[in-house]
Amino acid sequence: MRKKIGILAVLLGFFILVTFPLWHSVGMRHSLEPPNLVLPANQKNCVMPVAYMRSSHMFLLLNWRELVVRHDQHTFRSFDGKSYNMSLTGTCLGCHNKQQFCDRCHTYMGVQTPNCFNCHVDPMALRGGMR
Amino acid sequence: MNITRKQFLGLAGASILVAVSGKQVLAELEGERQDGKPRPRKQYAMIVDTRKCSTLPDCTKCIDACNSSHNVPVIPNPEHEIKWIWKEEVANVFEAQQIPYLETTLKERATIVLCNHCDNPPCVRVCPTGATWKREEDGIVMMDWHRCIGCRYCMAACPYGSRSFNWIDPRTELKVLNPAFPTRTKGVVEKCVFCYERLALGQGPACAEVCPAKALIFGDLNDPQSEVRKMLGSGLTLRRRPSLGTGPNIYYIL
């Protein structure tokens, strides 16, 4: 009989542990609201359509990196015929605010922050006196 | 016509020799190098006129301009220091010349040293990731800091000590950041890249532009009308340790 109680206690503990992911969020307040992204006020279009940028901006950035650093090409012709300088700090962060755009979405999606900004400078943060 | 087997083999061998050497001659004429790599269309080079440079012994304008435009930190600890362009005494720069009884003022004259952007760069040969390479269009020995894994083979290979390793995060040492150029991060190697970012905008290297004595002359060696070509043709210039076969592209006037 004593053994039975021990076994049941261990089983109960095991059950609680296994089902932890199911019940631990009960009672916590989770929001399904999308992140409040601050869009650039002075521009209507990005360098590619929004749907493409949303899903594939990382490939675009990798492509830009290869073209600029390894092939000395600096101009990007966008889908609407405009020319852009292929530069993360100059072009992307010239419009977007890193903290209110990049970081908010990456945090919301739980995507690991890429190491771009270990080297590339965020010009808006610099202007605000931060480094 | 009768031909023995010996004669036939001899003739065949001779024709192969002629064909192979002819191909190499043609390749050389078409601008291909013997090792199969195409010759750069341009070859940027720099002449350091130490006579002009030494008229301003306390001037560090070229170094300051390079540091500020490329976010190069000034770290006093010699174990951690990062150098793209710096001053060195003539006797140390041309130590291979081993000239005894050299005049003290010339021996101790400070001159400017930087990456030599070699024709045959040993750093490129040893880099395991292709993070450094010689650009075909202008001969710049370029770096891709995204690809550098920090193995420091290139630093061991470079006979000029032109490369520095980031032992600490350079951002902790930088007081002012230039947002137009990235900093580096801990664990990568860096060196002078001949201001490729300024050349892309049609500007010259920052060091040559700010030099008040006009002691740094930059230009394309493949262009017979360029100032560097004319200066090389008009007097004796020296290169650092050319016997190593690296083909350095920084020339010195003493």
Write a structural description.
The complex is a heterodimer of chains A (131) and B (254). Chain A contains seven helices and two strands. Among the domains of chain A are: 46-86, no CATH class; 88-131, no CATH class. A two-stranded antiparallel ribbon of chain A has the order 1-2. Chain A is mainly α and 131 residues long. Chain B is 29% helix and 14% strand. With 254 residues, chain B is α+β, with helices and mostly antiparallel strands. In chain B, a hairpin with a 6-residue loop joins strand 4 (132-134) and strand 5. The mean pLDDT of chain B is 92. Chain B has helices at 5-29, 50-53, 61-70, 90-93, 104-107, 122-126, 153-157, 196-199, 206-210, 227-234, and strands at 44-49, 85-89, 110-114, 132-134, 141-143, 164-165, 189-190, 216-220, 250-253. The chains are: A mainly alpha (131), B alpha+beta (254). Chain A binds chain B through residues 65, 69-70, 72, 74, 89-90, 115, 118-123, 126, 131, and chain B through 71, 135, 137, 142, 144-146, 171, 174, 177-180, 182-185, 196, 200.
Care to count the β-strands of chain B?
9
Main β-sheet description of chain A: 2 strands, antiparallel
Could you state the order of secondary-structure elements of chain A as H and E? Answer: HHHEEHHHH
**Tally of distinct domains of chain B:** 2
Widest beta sheet: strand line-up of chain B: 8-1-9
Task: Please summarize what this structure is.
The complex is a heterodimer of chains A (131) and B (254). By secondary structure, chain A is mainly alpha-helical.
What labels describe this entry?
A: 131 residues; mainly alpha; two-stranded antiparallel sheet; 7 helices; 2 strands; elongated; B: Alpha-Beta Plaits; 2 domains; globular
